[in-house]
Amino acid sequence: xxxxxxxxxxxxxxxxxxxxxxxxxxxxxxxxxxxxxxxxxxxxxxxxxxxxxxxxxxxxxxxxxxxxxxxxxxxxxxxxxxxxxxxxxxxxxxxxxxxxxxxxxxxxxxxxxxxxxxxxxxxxxxxxxxxxxxxxxxxxxxxxxxxxxxxxxxxxxxxxxxxxxxxxxxxxxxxxxxxxxxxxxxxxxxxxxxxxxxxxxxxxxxxxxxxxxxxxxxxxxxxxxxxxxxxxxxxxxxxxxxxxxxxxxxxxxxxxxxxxxxxxxxxxxxxxxxxxxxxxxxxxxxxxxxxxxxxxxxxxxxxxxxxxxxxxxxxxxxxxxxxxxxxxxxxxxxxxxx
Length: 338
What we know:
Structural class: alpha+beta
Strand order of the largest sheet: 6-7-8-9-10
């Protein structure tokens, strides 16, 4: 399989996207895992984000290996451990958002590659993951964010539940394509959407994090005028000139992944000029090999943490695809509100 590489004119040419894809692929471990960086740990969500970027960057074999890793490491209850390093589990707990995200990745892979046989192969893994996640949904609609052998955390996170809302939408679409419709998933998604839009008290207060600001838009639970109002309400609090956006409101620290996720959210609601500006602004985090630093403390000009993460590079590739409308999967977040 070969795909056309995204190009964002005046910002990143296709060869730059290829280099970024190569920087992600270079970190992949022999079993298919995509850790944060060489020697770092792997978590199931960022692993899938990186696999999606590899698909866009014309590294389908590496992406396929990553998805197979997910299938092979899924536990009997449909979950994955929260953190693995070199094949050794470091955190046995399960994050429900992490466990739902494979649905997004597999739908994205199918949309880009058209490989129906591979989607069929991964379908039991997706189905088991979503069924596990929905075990932790409350009657009000929110979904507890973590689970251990003794039960759930009993707490929900706005960012995590917003991402699950998106993954549930992808799972419902994928189920219909596969021929295994799941109206119960659609109903669960509707309840979750109601909680996200109308019950802020259902979620822990993490409002200092920019992700809690834009993720309801990125995940598709909030769209239209309400989305524009939400993004405008804290724009000046999080957006830092020509550098990107803050990770947290009370620290002088801009981060590349959050900036590119906001780019995706802006693109999803048609705010193209702001999306392109922020995508251009965060390129100061790029290195010559195509990798990206996680963030910058802008008061002293220091990279922090001192690491170049696969998931930051992945967010760049996915944002470039969305802005350029290049691969068939470029609307994986734009279409999330359907």
